[in-house]
Design brief:
The complex is a heterodimer.
Chain A (H helix, E strand, L loop, with lengths): L7 H27 L10 H32 L5 H8 L1 H4 L2 H12 L4 H8 L10 H26 L2 H9 L4 H29 L3 H6 L8 H11 L3 H25 L21 H31 L7 H31 L4 H11 L2 H12 L9 H38 L4 H30 L4 H4 L7 H10 L3 H31 L1
Helix pairs in contact in A: 1-12, 1-14, 1-15, 1-16, 2-7, 2-9, 2-13, 5-13, 7-9, 9-12, 9-17, 11-12, 12-15, 13-21, 14-15, 14-17, 14-18, 14-21, 15-17, 17-18, 18-21, 20-21
Chain B lengths: L2 H16 L4 E7 H4 L5 H12 L2 E7 L2 H11 L7 E6 L3 H6 L3 E2 L18 E14 L9 H6 L4 E4 L5 H14 L3 H8 L3 E5 L2 H9 L5 E5 L2 H9 L4 E4 L5 E11 L5 H11 L2 H10 L3 E2 L20 E2 L3 H20 L1
Parallel strand pairs in B: 1-2, 1-3, 6-7, 6-8, 10-12
Antiparallel strand pairs in B: 3-10, 4-10, 5-8, 5-9, 5-10, 5-11
Helix pairs in contact in B: 7-13, 8-13
The chains are: A mainly alpha, B alpha/beta.
Chain lengths: 516, 327
């Protein structure tokens, strides 16, 4: 590895940022624990842990297994509106969970088209509720992320390698063995771990679609401990359990991940060989099926939301502006931190990798509670509602951004590190001339994700918000709580559109900078 | 990024104004203070007479409200809390944060309820809501369990109606509660984290019935002119949810807090409850209930566990529910 120590200031900045992230996640849990009076787990927490692990493992496996053929088909086929489709396919990941569940129900629910077709064929109806429903929803939400992570792996294989393979007359199977399999070996552990950790903290999906109390997650136990029993000790213990799981999975990933697989390329645009014949048909079928699976529920959300647009209260618009401001702010903050940490890790500050993944295991509720305890009573919590949401959302988005950036940052240092050092290219000039253009694609995609995730977030704001700081997801929840399901569906459509527009803008910036 | 300095400025303005007019901090749940809830009308009405600024601080639901108070402890800015229910009052009383409300007892409840600290402001019966077109609605939990009807309920560990249902079965069946739950297991499509998810699933057609209130059909009838929803009357009786308000002992505005509690249970505030909170008022209205409420089912029997019983039974009843459904 080309790991030469970076400038002292960069190292120190990265270390400080890493400590800040750790303080936000671990510190808030410690503060919560500090107010505890009793330390014990509940009787059902063991079962919750088991279910949490099983559903997260299944969800990660299925998402990644399905993402491989999809990413390959997208990487090697060229068709009209391909770029548009790739962006659209990211949409489910950006959906707020409540909206995603309703979208899935529109397709797979009792009155949905899938069951209508089954009944038409004389088959028994399919219930979406149960472990399979939870996994289905998690795959729907995370397949886009897995696909993008793997697709970026394909795109990171230097074009010269494929040309060489073609020149050597390698059949597709041999290309897979020599080029694609090593790439997957380096990308998959990260993708699996990210999705596993993401599903670990699942709350609303598992509970709504789980079908009963046996589908209980640790996050639900935390919610119960904090909200219903006010048992801070149990909440802190459960949060610690979640941290331990996250640390174990992240460390395992670090061991499994191979370093940069390919040597430097010339950065030429990529033309992956696209074999014809039956392989072409299979790729086509994969793309069509995935599109139907990922966009069908989205269509459901749109159709449900349209009539509700007219019913929305005026409060939607200021809430939208607040949500947008927080989303853009947290996306920029998260990008800056992720880039700093990724560069530092690639240069050898390995411990920061664990820090950057920490927020993934953090419970939004525990962070919120810890921060609340930290500021109360010296500052009125509602004054801090938006800044706190911005900071916490940035921290929550950090792991994704970091995961997306790290492989490419490593490749960048391996490929150009020595050259730029020999040229004396440092600091801001290097950032502007080398780092930003080379990393623009993952940076644009990642900050788009961060912005969209922040748009849909409901975790922390609920504890701090007042009427003056109401965000759009909070407003939707309040509409639903007041029987106004139609208006809520309309507002959800606005939220989804805005999230997607933000994501689109960031991602477009990335691809256009990368192409330039 | 504009909104941050702006909100800070708002906060400064608010504290400047506070130097002149006293501020009454009322903690309540989200839907009470939302623009569709009773909050805005009550705020306007009370501020006309109090020469004060009524300020709502919201938390998600009754349980989060109590959790917030417990987090803040004696340093809480709250003067009054509106929206705990009788399944939470034991825990609330144990915090020692509440003072006697000193108001006369309310007279509009189906069963007598009196508590030195907690003053009822509205109430409702839990019930399973269904479409009027449902062929033969069940008349008891046992009939429901024997039927192949699909229901959605809420999780008692994260939702107050969910906890209400567990208490309902416990109050109606006592030691047979586990048996009833075992029978209901195959009727339950899913268990949602909160009321709104469950009600949404029902409206989407994912279930035949949903746990809600006998007053839910009134919303559809009055606000949407839709009379297709009704509630099933159960022979064993319906469990009550009584929502209460309380005054904080550490309040810096005790006189205003008293005035607010009197206003909350007075004719003006009680009159807005039925069509904003979709619950029954705690005191009878001179003008009677709004048109449409006469179409709602009237349970013959009301069930309610005392605060002490509810507090003592809660953990065991939830564990029983969980064990029966997890098998």
């Amino acid at each position: 590895m080309a790991s030469r120590a970076g400038p002292i200031t960069a190292r120190a900045t990265a270390a400080l940022l890493g400590l800040a992230v750790a303080a936000l996640t671990l510190g808030s849990a410690a503060l919560t624990a500090g107010h505890a009076t009793d330390w014990s787990l509940g009787p059902a927490d063991g079962a919750a842990l088991r279910f949490t692990l099983v559903q997260a493992a299944l969800s990660a496996l299925v998402s990644c297994l399905l993402a491989i053929p999809l990413a390959r088909a997208l990487a090697r086929r060229h068709f009209a509106a391909r770029a548009l489709l790739i962006r659209l396919l990211a949409a489910p990941f950006l959906l707020p969970v409540v909206v995603a569940v309703l979208g899935l129900l529109a397709v797979f629910g009792r009155a949905g088209p899938v069951n209508a077709a089954l009944t038409g064929l004389g088959l028994p109806p399919l219930s979406i509720f149960g472990l399979h429903g939870v996994v289905l929803a998690h795959v729907f939400l995370n397949l886009p992320l897995a696909t993008r992570m793997i697709l970026q792996g394909w795109q990171a294989i230097p074009a010269e390698r494929f040309r060489l393979a073609m020149a050597l007359g390698m059949p597709p199977a041999a290309q897979f063995r020599h080029l694609e399999a090593p790439m997957l070996r380096s990308v998959l552990p990260g993708a699996l771990a990210t999705i596993f950790l993401l599903c670990l903290t699942s709350f609303a999906v598992a509970l709504t679609l789980g079908g009963g109390p046996s589908a209980s997650t640790i996050e639900l136990s935390i919610y119960q401990a904090l909200r219903f029993e006010f048992d801070l000790g149990r909440a802190a213990l459960l949060a610690a359990l979640q941290f331990a799981l996250c640390a174990a999975v992240t460390l395992a990933t670090l061991r499994l991940t191979t370093g940069a697989v390919f040597g430097p390329g010339l950065g030429r645009p990529l033309h992956i060989p696209n074999p014809q014949g039956w392989r072409r048909l299979v790729d086509g079928a994969v793309i069509v099926l995935a599109t139907a699976f990922l966009l069908g529920p989205l269509l459901g959300v749109t159709l449900r939301g349209l009539p509700g647009l007219a019913e929305m209260p005026a409060g939607v618009w200021p809430a939208l502006v607040r949500s947008l401001a927080v989303a853009i702010g947290s996306a920029l903050l998260a990008s800056a931190i992720a880039l700093t940490l990724a560069l530092a890790v690639a240069r050898g500050q390995g411990w920061l990798e664990l820090t950057a993944m920490l927020p993934l295991s953090a419970s939004g509720l525990v962070i919120g509670t810890g921060l609340f305890l930290a500021v109360h009573p010296s500052i009125q919590p509602e004054i801090l509602a938006l800044p706190v949401t911005l900071a916490v959302n940035a921290a929550m988005a950090l792991p994704y951004l970091f995961r997306l950036l790290l492989p490419e940052t490593r490749a960048l240092l391996a490929d150009y590190g020595r050259l730029s050092e020999s040229l004396g290219l440092y600091g801001l000039t290097r950032l502007r001339l080398l780092t930003l253009p080379r990393l623009a694609r993952p940076l644009g995609f990642g900050s788009g994700l961060a912005a969209a995730l922040s748009m849909g977030d409901l975790g922390v704001i609920a504890l701090f918000a007042s009427e003056r700081s109401e965000t759009l997801p909070l407003l939707i929840q309040r509409l639903m709580g007041a029987y106004r399901m139609e208006a809520a569906a309309g507002a959800a459509l606005v939220l989804v559109s805005a999230s997607f527009a933000l994501f689109w803008a960031f991602d477009r910036w990335g691809t256009s900078r990368a192409a330039a | 990024m504009r909104t941050i300095p702006l909100s800070a400025a708002f906060a400064c303005l608010a504290s400047l104004a506070a130097a002149e007019t006293p501020v009454l901090d009322v903690y309540t749940y989200d839907s009470f203070a939302s623009e569709w809830g009773p909050g805005p009308a009550i705020e306007k009405g009370f501020e006309e007479s109090c020469a004060c600024d009524l300020h709502f601080v919201t938390a998600g639901d009754g349980a989060s409200l109590l959790a917030r108070l417990q987090l803040e402890g004696a340093a809480s800015a709250a003067d009054v809390v509106v929206g705990l229910d009788t399944n939470l009052t034991a825990q609330a009383a144990a915090t020692g944060l509440f003072a006697a409300h000193g108001q006369p007892a309310v007279t509009g409840l189906p069963t007598p309820y009196e508590d030195a600290n907690f003053l009822p402001f509205d109430w409702g019966w839990f019930a399973f809501v269904h479409n009027r077109s449902l062929a033969s609605p069940p008349k008891s939990f046992e009939e429901l369990a024997a039927s192949d009807l699909k229901i959605v309920i809420q999780d008692p560990r994260s939702s107050t109606p969910g906890l209400g249902l567990v208490m309902w079965v416990k109050a109606a069946y006592g030691d047979r509660a586990a048996e009833i739950w075992a029978g209901l297991k195959d009727n339950i499509v899913t268990v949602t984290p909160g009321w709104s998810e469950a009600y949404g699933l029902f409206l989407e057609g994912e279930a035949d019935m949903v746990l809600s209130y006998t007053t839910s059909p009134a919303y559809h009838l009055i606000a949407e002119s839709d009379d297709t929803k009704t509630a099933a009357a159960f022979d064993e009786g319906h469990y009550l949810q009584i929502e209460v308000a309380g005054k904080l002992g550490a309040s810096d505005q005790p006189a205003l807090a008293d005035a607010f509690l009197a206003y909350l249970t007075g004719e003006a505030a009680q009159g807005v409850i039925p069509t904003t909170n979709w619950m029954y008022p705690a005191n009878p209205l001179a003008a009677g209930l709004p048109q449409g409420f006469e179409t709602l089912i009237q349970p013959a029997k009301s069930l309610l566990l005392s605060q002490e019983e509810a507090g003592a039974l809660r953990d065991a009843a939830v564990a029983e529910w969980q064990a029966a459904l997890a098998q």
